[in-house]
Amino acid sequence: RPKRCCAARRAQPGLALVPVAPRSPRSPVTSSARPPAPLGTMLRWLRGFVLPTAACQEAEPPTRYETLFQALDRNGDGVVDIGELQEGLRNLGIPLGQDAEEKIFTTGDVNKDGKLDFEEFMKYLKDHEKKMKLAFKSLDKNNDGKIEASEIVQSLQTLGLTISEQQAELILQSIDADGTMTVDWNEWRDYFLFNPVTDIEEIIRFWKHSTGIDIGDSLTIPDEFTEDEKKSGQWWRQLLAGGIAGAVSRTSTAPLDRLKIMMQVHGSKSDKMNIFGGFRQMVKEGGIRSLWRGNGTNVIKIAPETAVKFWAYEQYKKLLTEEGQKIGTFERFISGSMAGATAQTFIYPMEVMKTRLAVGKTGQYSGIYDCAKKILKHEGLGAFYKGYVPNLLGIIPYAGIDLAVYELLKSYWLDNFAKDSVNPGVMVLLGCGALSSTCGQLASYPLALVRTRMQAQAMLEGSPQLNMVGLFRRIISKEGIPGLYRGITPNFMKVLPAVGISYVVYENMKQTLGVTQK
Prior knowledge:
Elements: H1 2-11, H2 39-49, H3 53-56, H4 64-72, E1 79-80, H5 82-91, H6 98-108, E2 116-117, H7 118-139, E3 146-147, H8 149-158, H9 165-175, E4 183-184, H10 185-191, H11 201-205, H12 227-232, H13 234-252, H14 254-266, H15 275-286, H16 295-300, H17 302-320, H18 329-359, H19 368-379, H20 388-416, H21 426-456, H22 468-479, H23 488-493, H24 495-513
Antiparallel strand pairs: 1-2, 3-4
Helix pairs in contact: 8-9, 13-17, 13-24, 14-15, 17-18, 18-20, 20-21
């Protein structure tokens, strides 16, 4: 009879899970030696032990929300502060991280008194369950009350994320509490009970190309922002944090960037220009400060380029997709490439000035304005778009290979390493982002080299003014295929420090600007 009572209670809506630690030596609350289990395992453990037989014999058992609130209210004063919430969730074996916990608290604290009373707590969970119910129904395509692997594959495809049936099963395993390889409403709600996600798009958020990664080239496809991020203003804060991170990262790696440009332009004169010889030559000619020549222009162009690219990306997405339709991978590639081309067209004169300043000798230009004035006076307006065609052509292989390699790495990780969560973690994301961007650079590098040569041709005495095809022929005939890759070593050398620096600055700027992790 007691067993039937417990089963009946589990079947009631709202009583599927009572995550309060039982008085058992196996409880993670009372045993500090036991490490926190993954969330899926913890849920299965809770289902088996959290409803002792004695609880079924109470005439008026506390509601699910009351039991939860009592577990979190550590000092029994009738309110829960942020410290109690964080400690309580840790004790229940479901630490979410500071950002998510603070979001729960700030959303639930309606009267902004810095504490959650029971009414606020109950209202937050009820509102959250409504959102999760909508998310559950959007995944349950055949309306049978269960989510299957095929339905996850179908739903993520509409959001532009292609995964295999095996990958979908791994996602299900992290949520499935009874081992049936399907997820019912109770399991879905229990898994996301304290996780402040509101829809299935949060799975995709883990695999967004981080806005904070900047390796010096701005040809990557822009990030997707959720509707919630757009409405709350989080999108511009993320872009601003990314812009500041890019400025710090580019300034930190500027000597390597200038060396790359010098090797691209002057490398053909002498095969002896190597990394150490190049640095020695630059310092001898203009001192230590000359290593940062051209960096100011490189930093200034971040803001207009990011703004134009983001705006253009949103416009191209609207043109390529129907109203309310989610963008697919191919449409994202086309939209991103076109947005990159639009942004490059807008800021390309600054690219030319950056190259001229980097290649210029000490005293040749007093600054950006002086450089622009001299180019306009001696060469005319057209000089600001020298090398524009190879630059434009380079966007397609860069963006395409960057996206393809990233998707391949993502798929490999989901196939082989996703056990209890689809969140790959920071190091995996940074590694995938750096590797995919490096492959994109490698594919488009010959076009980038020809672009730089065309931008600097007018500064080289006795150098013929060749077009793109003429320069390719000249380089291959005189230097061979390796000549198309001059300067690639310092270019690759700056990838790891650029990624690391930009990520650290990006995360710190997000905290400063109040960007919450949705």
